């Protein structure tokens, strides 16, 4: 397959006519060929119209057909072979091993949602049988199942060009739910986006999906992205990116005549709490793990450990020293785009020049387009006095907050904004100190983890990759794992509906053999 600089609108592959976008080789800043044409208003209109028309036929397909479609997408992505891997490495600056791993994760996500469809639990089928004899009033027949919400706009993320992009978790969960997707490619990896988009189209054709189930647009300004969120046929938005970008889209969605949900994953500094006994027992080991997590993917993970909170003392000094040694041995890595590198440099310069902040360690020198890891420290009073110190510096930068005691650690925790993750490093002797902090962390974070770091999200059934604002726009949701499908579903109740008019999931004979909640009790399909 060759990259042509073309977008996909329904079954049509054509070059957009609104300006040009070029991929950039992340390591050199050189332009990559070919040019990609940006979408026009007419392209946007057609993609949304086709998505709207595809919605009813697509959602009416048996779950098995949608599952096969998701699996076909995974196969088609794999079939892109080395062309995808090479283009993705060039555009992102991420190493081959990481991109191959990310491709595996992307395929795994698609297959996970295929299994979710076959399981049927996502429908949450419920039957409250009628009680005609009930006194003082009879009870009606009530049945509930989830239905898809409608066409979804998906904004590809810069930092996971496969797993959080054109056919990433948002697209996989929306398609699984029964929602057509209009994807907006991230301009940091247009070639990767086109290749993956073509793979989705090939799968759609192979599986005979309705036209409009998937479209892919390029945006040479921000107008197409904004127009997509504003379009009345779009019913939800999936986004991973900056706080500024996410909140701009939230505003557009909220001010529509019909407001819609935006599932934006934005900014998180992922606090790491080091408890005294753990520090005492293994300051050096924790430091090694911390440094590795900090520089993973040039620090460009939304789960990056950007804040460390600990009580000052000799054990913490050991941790700082060991972190310094570990970082000094780690080379600077190419960042995703010149713009992201520039933003990182700006954030680091701001901390370096901050009166209350001390630079305690740096990684090996960066040079052009490479981010040099940075570890800073501030005392708790200084941290609490300046909200700017909570702002995410996207890249390998972290801030240590030195506390006088555990009460001060708690005060720092109380002040934190919403987070994707909170990590606790503890030994058995720390448990009593940790226990009272847990209810607070539950209010702050989507995932609380012990003796590890948040980078590297497991894609499974019990994963939560979400958290209160600004980690995400809606802390009741997750963008990773099977539960992510719930973002694109809504419940419909059928009251006194004749059996032959009910969807199969709710018919008396239970032809899909679903587990259903009957009168409140989870009930196995009868033999
Ligand atoms: N916390 C996280 O997971 C991530 C944070 N970032 C942050 O975002 C910065 C820039 O990186 P990007 O990935 O480019 O994020 P971004 O938020 O600038 O862009 C993400 C996507 O949203 C679109 N977009 C952004 N603002 C928009 C607006 N006002 N109207 C319409 N569309 C808009 C962009 O065109 C792009 O497709 C990074 O330096 C970093 O600070 C980036 C990636 C992940
Ligand atoms: O840590 C991961 O695997 C995922 C991180 C993530 O969601 C992000 O950086 O956008």
UniProtKB/TrEMBL annotation:
CDD domains per record: ALDH_KGSADH (cd07129)
Record-annotated Aldehyde dehydrogenase domain positions: 36-459
EC category name: oxidoreductase
UniProt entry tagged with the keyword Lipid biosynthesis: no
E.C. number(s) listed in UniProt: 1.2.1.26
Catalytic activities: 2,5-dioxopentanoate + NADP(+) + H2O = 2-oxoglutarate + NADPH + 2 H(+); 2,5-dioxopentanoate + NAD(+) + H2O = 2-oxoglutarate + NADH + 2 H(+)
Keyword Oxidoreductase: yes
Pfam family of the protein (one): Aldedh
Record family assignment: Belongs to the aldehyde dehydrogenase family.
Keywords assigned: Oxidoreductase
Name under which the protein is recorded: 2,5-dioxovalerate dehydrogenase
GO MF annotations in UniProt: 2,5-dioxovalerate dehydrogenase (NADP+) activity
Domain of life: Bacteria
């Amino acid at each position: 397959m060759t990259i042509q600089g073309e977008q996909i609108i329904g079954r049509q592959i054509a070059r957009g006519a609104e300006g040009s976008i070029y991929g950039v080789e992340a390591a050199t800043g050189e332009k990559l060929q070919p040019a990609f044409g940006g979408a026009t208003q007419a392209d946007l209109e057609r993609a949304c119209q086709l998505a709207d028309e595809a919605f009813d036929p697509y959602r009416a397909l048996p779950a098995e057909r949608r599952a096969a479609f998701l699996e076909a997408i995974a196969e088609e992505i794999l079939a892109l072979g080395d062309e995808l891997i090479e283009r993705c490495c060039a555009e992102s600056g991420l190493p081959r091993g990481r991109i191959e791993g990310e491709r595996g994760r992307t395929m795994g996500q698609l297959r996970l949602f295929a299994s979710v469809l076959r399981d049927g639990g996502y429908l949450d089928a419920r039957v409250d049988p009628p009680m005609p004899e009930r006194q003082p009033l009879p009870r009606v027949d009530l049945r509930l199942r989830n239905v898809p919400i409608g066409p979804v706009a998906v904004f590809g993320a810069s930092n996971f060009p496969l797993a959080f992009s054109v056919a990433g978790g948002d697209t996989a969960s929306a398609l699984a739910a029964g929602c057509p997707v209009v994807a907006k490619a991230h301009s940091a990896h247009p070639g990767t986006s086109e290749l993956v988009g073509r793979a989705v189209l090939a799968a759609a054709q192979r599986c005979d999906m309705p036209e409009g189930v998937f479209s892919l647009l390029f945006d040479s300004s921000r107008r197409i992205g904004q127009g997509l969120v504003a379009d009345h046929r779009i019913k939800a938005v999936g986004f991973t990116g900056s706080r500024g970008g996410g909140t701009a889209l939230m505003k557009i969605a909220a001010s529509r005549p019909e407001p819609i949900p935006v599932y934006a994953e934005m900014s998180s500094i992922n606090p790491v709490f080091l408890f005294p006994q753990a520090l005492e027992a293994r300051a050096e080991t924790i430091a090694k793990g911390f440094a590795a997590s900090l520089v993973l993917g040039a620090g460009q993970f939304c789960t990056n450990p950007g804040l460390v909170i600990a009580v000052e003392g000799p054990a913490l000094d050991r941790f700082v020293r060991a972190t310094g040694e570990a970082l000094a041995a780690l080379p600077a890595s190419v960042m995703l785009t010149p713009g992201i590198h520039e933003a990182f440099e700006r954030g680091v310069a701001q901390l370096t020049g901050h009166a209350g902040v001390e630079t305690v360690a740096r990684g090996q020198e960066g040079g052009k387009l490479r981010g040099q890891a940075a570890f800073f420290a501030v005392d708790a009073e200084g941290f609490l006095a300046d909200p700017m110190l909570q702002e995410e510096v996207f890249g390998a930068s972290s801030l240590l907050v030195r506390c006088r005691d555990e009460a001060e650690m708690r005060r720092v925790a109380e002040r934190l904004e919403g987070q994707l993750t909170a990590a606790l490093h503890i030994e058995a002797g720390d448990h009593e100190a940790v226990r009272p902090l847990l209810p607070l962390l539950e209010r702050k974070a989507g995932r609380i983890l012990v003796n590890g770091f948040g980078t590297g999200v497991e894609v499974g059934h019990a994963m939560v990759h979400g958290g209160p604002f600004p980690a995400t726009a809606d802390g009741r949701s997750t963008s990773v794992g099977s539960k992510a499908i719930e973002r694109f579903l809504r419940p419909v109740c059928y009251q006194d509906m004749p059996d032959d008019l009910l969807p199969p999931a709710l018919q008396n004979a239970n032809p899909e053999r679903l587990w259903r909640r009957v009168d409140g009790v989870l009930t196995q399909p009868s033999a």
